[in-house]
UniProtKB/TrEMBL annotation:
Keywords: Kinase, Transferase. PANTHER family: GLUCOKINASE, ROK (REPRESSOR, ORF, KINASE) FAMILY. Coiled coil: none annotated. This is Sugar kinase of the NBD/HSP70 family, may contain an N-terminal HTH domain. GO terms for molecular function: kinase activity. The keyword ATP-binding does not apply. It comes from the Bacteria. It comes from Xaviernesmea oryzae.
Amino acid sequence: MLAKSSTELVRQQNSALVLSALRRHGRLAHTEISDATGLASATVSAITADLERARIIEKSEQQAVSGRGRPRVLFSQRRGCGYLVTIIISSDSIQYSLVDYAGTLLDRFTEPRGEGGTATFLAAISAALTRAATRSRIDPARVLLVSISSKGLAHPAAPVLVWSPVFGAQPVDFSQALTDGWSAKVILNNETLLVAGALLEREAKRKGEGEPVLAALSLGHSIGLGIARRGGAGLPEISAPNFGHMLHMPDGGLCRCGARGCIEAYAGFYAILRTAFEVPMDTIPAKFVPIAEIDKIAAGARQGNRMAQLAFRHAGVALGNGLSRLLSLHGHMPVFITGPGTRHYDLLQAGMEEGLSQTQVVRLGGMPNLLVVPDEASLVFEGHLNLAFSIIDQDIIASRPHMQAAGE
């Protein structure tokens, strides 16, 4: 019985490797799959035959450039195998995307976040999910997974937002957004976790193996951090520590979370606004600050306004101090800076470097690479696809025990 379980586990792992290779590289021939996965030719043949029989992948032919010889047989995901819906929750809007199993974007629309409590919020998401399926004439039962991202603190094992800037400590259970007719799995992740995962994948495609470990720091209304590293068998290990609410200054400025002295209470958009206008630090923070207001403060700072410059310097020092703790715990790594706050990086950089330089790990090991990547929206969506499809692939493979044991 143990041998049978081990054989089944190997089959599932090998099948997942093949699907992962097709997702990373696109359509591949038999030999290219073998090269990408390191699997033997006979194993690849058995796996692709099983996956094709189960209607998970499909074959197509590519004629040789010269027009002579036999066409190349290429394998790819079958688009109609199932569907994914991604939901990206921002401070003022929610973006919905419908994607087929091959990763093709079929539909996308954005709605205002709206007002009201959690019940109203979940009802709006439920209606939007139905609209996404109806617009593309997709049976909701064929949606395999709904992947949600948000700023805030996500439950580690359930699709529940434990804390958020809008709802505070009032939990939001996103599984309640799926009504009758929906059987999809629901997952929730911190937005910056997805960004870190997408950056790790981008680096792997650009450099081969890529960076072994990296951090993504998101600047905006909230402050987020994601850490991604290469794990066993090349699989990523991604986490999102509650960086924005780490302590920066004891008994310091009031944060949106209700605590005092958090990094976000000095580096979030509301904190920059508060410092620039010399508002008392115990003033209850605004839930949302339009970026246009921060742009005005940034313009003033570039023109020499002392309090505007001080606001960005304080923000930079808080971020740098937080990153110095990250490096002390996890060692040196490149830090990719993303989010709408990157447009003010010229005003934050000196303070960040000042905050970083105050710790021994930086004095001895040098300043980490700080790299600005402004297209956070693309990274969030890529992160959704990478993580969601890895889960979908595993679920599809595990649900088909009748597939022949490949790779024995």
